[in-house]
C-alpha cells in the first residue's frame, strides 16, 4: 500500500496536498474531515487532526512542520526544499515554524476557537478581538517580507510557500482590515494559479 496523506477541504492540510502534487509523489490522498466522527482520521491520529501521513510501514507522522519536509525528502534534490546544512533549508524551516506556531496556533486558532482559551462565553468576543489584533501584526511581518519577492525563500516556490498559501487563503476571509496587504494579495493570486493548487482544490471539492 502507498503512503496515505489524510486531508480535509478548507484545512491546513492543503499545503501538504500541494507538495504531493508539485512533486507527483506516489502518495494516496485520503479525504477525511475531522468534524465527521466516522472519519478514518480519528483512528489514524489520536488528536483527530489533519494533516496526517500514514506510511506504508504503519508509521504515522503528524504536524505540518514534520510532514512538509518529509514529503520533500521523498524527492531528493527537489527545488521545493534545500540541502541539509544549507542556509536556505534553515530559512524554509524557519518560515514553516512561524506559520505553525504564530499564524496558526497563535493566531487563527484563537480567532476561530476562543472557547479553547477562555471558559466564560462572555469573554469570547474579547479573546477574538485581541487575537485578531495579534494576527494582524503577525501577518504584516509576512507581507513586508514579500513586498520585494515573489516567493518566501530563494526566488522559487518551496514547501514553505505550499504551506503559506493555506493561511493567505484564510486571511482573505478575515474582513476589511486584512485586505490592505498588497504583497499577500498578489501572492494569493500567484498561489491559486499554480496547477498543483488548482488540482488539489478540485480533488478536495
Ligand atoms: N499543529 C497542527 C495543527 C493541525 C490542525 O489543527 N488541523 C486542523 C485543520 S486546519 C484540524 O484537523 N482540526 C480538527 C480539530 O482540531 O478537531 C499541524 O500543523 O499539523
TrEMBL record:
Endpoints of the signal sequence: none
GST N-terminal domain: residues covered: 1-79
Domain GST C-terminal: 85-205
Species of origin: Chitiniphilus eburneus
Upper classification of the organism: Bacteria, Pseudomonadati, Pseudomonadota, Betaproteobacteria, Neisseriales
Keyword Transferase: yes
Pfam families: GST_C_2, GST_N_2
Xref: InterPro entries: Glutathione-S-Trfase_C-like, Glutathione-S-Trfase_C_sf, Glutathione_S-Trfase, Glutathione_S-Trfase_N, Thioredoxin-like_sf
UniProtKB keywords: Transferase
MF-aspect GO terms: transferase activity
Protein name: Glutathione S-transferase
Amino acid at each position: 500500500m502507498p503512503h496515505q496523506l489524510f486531508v480535509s477541504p478548507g484545512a491546513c492540510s492543503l499545503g501538504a496536498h500541494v507538495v504531493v502534487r508539485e512533486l507527483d509523489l506516489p502518495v494516496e490522498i485520503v479525504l477525511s474531515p475531522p468534524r465527521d466522527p466516522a472519519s478514518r482520521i480519528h483512528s489514524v491520529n489520536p488528536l483527530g487532526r489533519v494533516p496526517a501521513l500514514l506510511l506504508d510501514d504503519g508509521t504515522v507522522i503528524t504536524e505540518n512542520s514534520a510532514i512538509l519536509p518529509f514529503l520533500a525528502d521523498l524527492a531528493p534534490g527537489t527545488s521545493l526544499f534545500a540541502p541539509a546544512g544549507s542556509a536556505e533549508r534553515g530559512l524554509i524551516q524557519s518560515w514553516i515554524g512561524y506559520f505553525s506556531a504564530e499564524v496558526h496556533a497563535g493566531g487563527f486558532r484563537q480567532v476561530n476557537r476562543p472557547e479553547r482559551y477562555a471558559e466564560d462565553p462572555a469573554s469570547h468576543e474579547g479573546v477574538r478581538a485581541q487575537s485578531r489584533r495579534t494576527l494582524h501584526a503577525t501577518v504584516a511581518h509576512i507581507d513586508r517580507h514579500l513586498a520585494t519577492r515573489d516567493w518566501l525563500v530563494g526566488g522559487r516556490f518551496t514547501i514553505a510557500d505550499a504551506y503559506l498559501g493555506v493561511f493567505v487563503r484564510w486571511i482573505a476571509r478575515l474582513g476589511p482590515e486584512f485586505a490592505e496587504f498588497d504583497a499577500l494579495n498578489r501572492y494569493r493570486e500567484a498561489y491559486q494559479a499554480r496547477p498543483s493548487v488548482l488540482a488539489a482544490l478540485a480533488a478536495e471539492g
